[in-house]
TrEMBL record:
Any one of the GO CC terms: plasma membrane
Keywords: Cell membrane, G-protein coupled receptor, Membrane, Olfaction, Receptor, Sensory transduction, Transducer, Transmembrane, Transmembrane helix
Organism, as annotated: Fukomys damarensis
Similarity annotation: Belongs to the G-protein coupled receptor 1 family.
Regions crossing the membrane: 25-49, 55-74, 95-118, 191-213, 234-256, 268-287
Highest rank taxon of the organism: Eukaryota
Localisation per UniProt entry: Cell membrane
Membrane protein topology class: Multi-pass membrane protein
GO molecular function term, any single one: G protein-coupled receptor activity
Pfam families: 7tm_4
Record PANTHER family: OLFACTORY RECEPTOR
Protein name, as recorded: Olfactory receptor
Domain (G-protein coupled receptors family 1 profile) ranges: 39-285
């Protein structure tokens, strides 16, 4: 049964009621969102257009950048637009739609980061079998599984919220719709839905973290027998991946792997996994990579030549 009750729209309190603060935040988030679009979009275009970036690592990186772009777009545009108005309102169905896509892209990103850790494990620990194990079909199936896993996770979270009777008051102290703030609007017992929401998000985080931990434990052990040059190259790639994992997993774990209560700091923490991580991903994972930078330069020169013609 769909959500019932007297709530048909939800009001966001946002970051601040001060008009000057809101304008400053609008400019800041507008610049950050533009950087997310340009950075991640350029990576996707570069990987698609460059034959030299055809390895599985860049295949997964291209999808990660696409997911980051979509993930940030679920919340950032609304946050920027709401900075211009005093009464920040979203319909109930719009709120539930936002929850669905937030967890769809967020869950997909978690699974993709796990897949990328497995890819690095095979590349470093099983180099002779890498081409066979990580063939085109296997890579496609892994990416499809990541999207499918994100969809199942999101559907579970959304159904749990959608079936709750929401009686209000219809004001949430956040800047977007998420499961914890919306649960506070329910006029029925939320213990079981809260538990299921934690188990849903927690199981994904725990399993993914276990795979990541196992992969990098084996990788670090195997690097002891490598030459110093090979060790540095492998550690550079792994360090970039671990930095992205940390920036995303730590804030998400803080919000979703605890009892369903909203804290004042949640809004600031949410900025990290919805905006800051997508913003830093191109810098950490791509612009420090020599092959990606070379491909970007070639693509830029090619576009310049076509422009002159």
């Amino acid at each position: 049964m769909a959500a019932t009750g007297n709530v048909t729209e939800i009001i966001f309190l946002g970051f601040s009621q001060n008009e000057n603060v809101q304008k400053a935040l609008c400019v800041m988030f507008l610049l950050m969102y533009a950087a997310v679009l340009l950075g991640n979009g350029f990576i996707v275009v570069t990987i698609v257009a460059s034959k030299g970036l055809a390895s599985p690592m860049y295949f997964f990186l291209g999808f990660l950048s696409l997911v980051e772009l979509c993930y940030c777009s679920v919340t950032a545009p609304r946050l920027i637009l709401d900075s211009f108005i005093q009464r920040r309102v979203i319909s109930l169905h719009g709120c539930i739609t936002q929850i669905f896509f937030l967890h769809f892209f967020g869950g997909t990103e978690i699974f993709l980061l796990t897949v990328m850790a497995y890819d690095r494990y095979v590349a470093i620990c099983k180099p002779l079998h890498y081409v066979t194990v990580m063939n085109r079909r296997a890579c496609g199936l892994l990416v499809g599984a990541a999207w499918g896993g994100g969809l199942l996770h999101s559907a579970g979270q959304t159904v749990l919220i959608f079936q709750l009777p929401l009686c209000g008051p219809n004001v949430i102290d956040h800047y977007f719709c998420d499961v914890h703030p919306v649960l506070k609007l329910a006029c029925s017992d939320t213990f079981l839905p809260s538990l299921l929401i934690i188990l849903n998000g927690g199981s994904i985080s725990v399993v993914s973290f276990a795979v990541l931990l196992a992969s990098y434990t084996v990788i670090l052990r195997s690097l002891r027998s490598r030459t110093s040059a090979g060790r540095r190259k492998a550690l550079s790639t792994c360090a970039s991946h671990l930095a992205v994992v940390g920036l995303f997993f730590i804030p998400c774990s803080f919000v979703y792997m605890r009892p369903c209560v909203s804290l004042p700091v949640d809004k600031i923490v949410a900025v990290f996994y919805t905006v800051v991580t997508p913003l830093l991903n191109p810098v950490i994972y791509s612009f420090r990579n020599a092959e990606v930078k070379d491909a970007m330069r070639r693509l830029t020169r090619r576009k310049a030549v076509w422009g002159e013609k």
